[in-house]
Amino acid sequence: MAQEGSQGGLFPHGDPFEVPEGLGAGEKRKRPEEDGASGEGNAFLDLCGRCGCVVVVEDDEGKDAQCTLSRDARDFVGALELELATAPRLRRDFVRGLETYAETDEGLRLLLRPVEQGDSLAHNLLNVYCLQSTVSALLLERVPTLDASDDAQKSTALSIVNQFRWLDVSSEDSALLDKFLEVIGIVDPALQDAMIAFLPEVTTTDDQADRVGAYLLDRLEEDSAFCASVIETTPSLCISGDVRDRVCLKVLDHLRAVEASEVGKVARFVLENASAATAAEVVGSLREGLSLVDARDPRRRIPDRTGKGKGKKSERTPEQDLVSAVRSALRCKPEAIGHYLNFLKKLGAGRGRGRAAGSGSAEGTPSCCTLDVWVLVVLLSFGGDRAAQARQAFQRKASRAGVGLYCVLFECFPEARHRQDCLGELVAHLGGGCPQETSNALGCLARIAREMLDALRPFASYLAALLDHVDAFEGAQARELFWVIGEVLEPDQGEPPGSGSQGSRRGSRLEDEVHITIRKQMSSDSPRYFRTGVVGSLALLARRERGIESCHNPSRRTKEVCVSLGRIFRECSRNPENLGFFFEEVAEILARGGLCHRRVLECLNELAAVDFEQTFIGEFESGRLAAEDTRGGEPWFNLDGENAEVALRIFPLAVSGDKEEQLQLAKLPAQISLLQVLENKQSGNLEAINALLGCPLHLFPEQALDECAAEARQDLAKVLVHAVNWCREILRVFTEGVDLTSAEAVRRERETLRKVVRRAGNTYVLEACLAILRQRAADRRGRFQPKSPGGAGTQTSVATAATTASTAGGDASSIEDLGSELDKAAKTFNTPEPRPFKQSHFALLFLALPGPRAEVGDGDSLLACLVYLLRHLRRECVVKGGAFATAEDVVGFRPTEGGAETLPLALGALQDLFLERLGQEPPTEATQATQDSTVMGAATRLAEDHFNAPALGLELISDVVCNTILKCDGPEVLRRFAEGFLGGGEGAAGPVQGFLDAMAARYDIGTTFDQKYKSAEVLVTAYKKLEGWSAGREGEGEGEGENESAARDLGVDLEELKRQAERRVGELLTGPDPSSLSKRRPGLPARAKVVDSLVGSYALLCEQPLDKLEEIASSFERYARHALDKAPKPGDSPFPLLDRQTIPSFYSCLFRWLCSLFRAELAASVEDRSRLDGVHRCACVFTKLVLLPKRAEKGSVLLKPIVQGAHGFLESLSAFDRQGLHQHEAVTQILKELQKGVKHLQFICSDCKTQKSTFLASKVPALKRSVERFNWKCLLWQHNKDGTKVQMGSLKHRDARGNAILSQLELSEFDFNRSAIGVEEDVEKDSQKSLLIDQSLPLSFEI
């Protein structure tokens, strides 16, 4: 074995490779010294021997000489450090001896060889701090002298480089890095990649990392061959964001130059290193520079059907490697997912014919490419929120791109088998069960039928498989499928049917299958299947009708079509609901240009008109209904006066004992819609049905609303719903197709439009009656008794209830939520939902333009009509699936096709009209509606109230504007909206700035709080949107990185807009004129929403949020203490908007504001300890807010906000421990400030036990645990700390076994290394210390 002692030296026992004569093969001997490599006077060998380096031993064969250590490597390094650190002469001699020893190849080899199973002697010497720079220079200088073409010398060179891996110590000076960079430039190119990969091992500071990053950039400039080395090295470097971005973009420039096998690595690198500033460029360059040509799914193993690849491992294609790399990058860096999805939001799928995937769309925006599809598929496999976002993007973008892809494939591959495969994939998508997938596949099939019908017809029999899925289709999907089938079956023009044409022969099987399917569905009792059969029957009839003029016997075919229509009509007449569906389907086909033959139109008109007249029309003479048809009802809303000859029978059908007669009302709106289309097709006008616009409605007596019993309300509600549906459809019928922007067109239709305006007011009344009826039914006593406007006494009249709930003296929530009230009424009374609004309904808003308004000249009725439409317009801009679901719907809506004026222009004209009206008529405090004693009278007054209409109209316009701004997905849409709103008068500042100036001016001239609040809300919404775009982040979910200069491009000064919005919101929050508060008293939820909006906006806008928070909190504390004890006088309140009911809401808003500021100050304190002053100020505000219930006599109303807000505040305090802030001296003062507040929180937790509130009962335990943990943490922070101690509160909890939690014990009784005194040894693992470091605890603080 090895020997130690005074003999010393690295090889004191001779050459281990030579076995002298007379010695056995396994014996050891000394190695002779040669060339001065060792011997007396070699300080390197002597000192190594003294510190633990022993002789080299030989194995049984006398080979593999190596040195060994007699002690641990760390002890050896430490011993050398002690010897050399204080002896400069010895260190100099040691280095000389090392240089002499390493000059020989044998000596260098033994230095680099691992010592037993550990590190080499050279690696150990590099861990000696005082030797590191010298030894590294000695080793690195040998690398250029080695020949990389010789495998042995190349191995030695790589071994030298490997010595620098995982060094235990590293010098902060740049000597080692300088030597490394110097050597890299002169070594053989075959070694440069290996040395570049080791640069992170010799980089210790951020400055050195940035220097390495700059060096890598220079190498990339010289040669793209270094791209792989840079990709491998950069992630291990702690370089700055700017340098990393430059490296990332430079690697991206070499994307097209790298080898195919390296493309995946490049893609992964740039995605993982992309920042918010470079994300758009990175994603765009990847999509442009990469193209997937292999359509195989890389996640799926491709089977070897030929069997030739048995026993061989299949090679992965570059495309598969690429997709795998992208998947890995997205999984490792979730931020890259957000960058990619944000980029996809801006893309539009190409829809043009022959446009390949990845090419530009018609609008110039790049469409989805194949890489996008693979990325979305990868995200879908992740699950969770990312999968949901990917699913939305896939449905919105990639699915539409897939439609174009299938069309391109069908067109570009003319061979039958290829087209058959393409259609087979479409059929698979049609049967996938996903509605969106089905719709896209049908759209693709319809596009092929429109553009390549001749190419599709040979596959007519193959399309029969589509009929297997038709039962699962929606109405529109079934309609599109049958249209495609009809196109495929249609014979050539001019060829009589049955002539044996090629198209007819090929489609014969499909035609037979269609007829069989339709017969089965038409004979089904299921409404769904029956209606699908109706769709198919009408589609085939429309196909036959198109060939009437070209067939050999037109009259015969016309008769066949009319007979078939009559047969379908009779089949549908068995169920009125099915008949209504028949009417809607026929109207849809007529709108698309089908069934337009003259005799067919006459047949349809006869069927629909005769049925309508027999079912719904009753005689009306001399202002009275026919005696045999009254049934206790009376006429409502007779607009024709003495000229009325008919009445619409709604009430008689609704109360009929015959169930079939009751169901007749379900088809009423669809039937009038069909009559409109037929009249327009036949005569070009609606004179034949003009009497229906002004005819009275046969409804129940008006007094029935007040006198009906609870069980009769459902019948009344059904009648009202059918009347509302009729009126809504009439509004659409008589306004559709009229150019309401033209004064001349309005003049021609003046009388009709006046009736339309009045009918809109009637609809307003009917909906108000329905809402009041629901409110009455909701009252458990059966009577609705709200407080009077003056606040004293009660009113038992339902009419007065309607007034106080809907007019100037009542509850604004009823006005605001009129649409919701109708939905609630449908659920309460189990009635059909009101017929939805369509965009064409809102064409009447264009009557607000000066020219059309002057021609109609209907005064208060027009104003009430416009307000009614604005109410529903606001709802349609908010609800999911509404008529105006996007900002483009609002910006692009025109009353007629091809018109120039858009809806924003009508909104701007409405605003001017309302402002003009308010200026002409000063506000009055009461209306005549309060004197009505019937529901009908109150609802009528509500619709005719001309004072309330302008003020409410301005509020509604502001809501529509805010919702539209929030939905704008780009600056261009916002610019178009502002331009339309101003009517082209944008001024020098641009349309958006001009629009904002108009909103600011409206605020200044506003006389009521409601007007000012709505105007300020528009300014705040615009600022949030523009600021989100300009900051390059997602503001309201729509901000994009490319919009960094959005505000500047739109001509808006963001800072000035922020100052204007802040000043106005501050005025509304702290200083509104009490006289400006309107007489309408909103409900508590509405007032709380206003308070929350104002406080949140003010916190966002103010320049010095902490100063403002302290100021507002101090004022609020004084006000709340006084207001909760006794009602404040009107002029004494610093917050005129508040009262006892809204104080808790304001209090909760202050807590949320405080928590957000506190987190921001804590985050800033981590970098700058001077910012702890801001944390201290937040602590003062926290204590002030927490102690408020203690100082106020009726402070129990504030318990709920405290339980919510204090928990979030204490959660934020975890940053003290995570970032080491608790060691700072200023933290003691912060804890002192928190002392009173935290102690009072414990009292509040105990007091909440006596409160009978389920909310408090569920929230208090979490707050108690947070307080307990924070108190214990404070004790730990203060332990063994000199100076003042801070006692944060008492600790009283026990664990599940009944043992006292160790935080109860005094610190003098607690041993942090073991356990607590008096605690059993087996409970030691449950000590408080182990509980504190238990990561599974659901608490926020960790030791």
UniProtKB/TrEMBL annotation:
Residues 794-813 have a biased composition (Low complexity). It holds the Pfam family FancD2. One of its GO terms (molecular function) is DNA polymerase binding. Keywords: Isopeptide bond, Nucleus, Ubl conjugation. One of its GO terms (biological process) is interstrand cross-link repair. InterPro entries: FANCD2. It comes from the Eukaryota. It is found in: Nucleus. Residues 1-39, 297-319, 782-813, 1063-1082 are annotated as: Disordered. One of its GO terms (cellular component) is nucleus. The keyword Ubl conjugation applies. Belongs to the Fanconi anemia protein FANCD2 family. This is Fanconi anemia nuclease FancD2. It comes from Chloropicon roscoffensis.
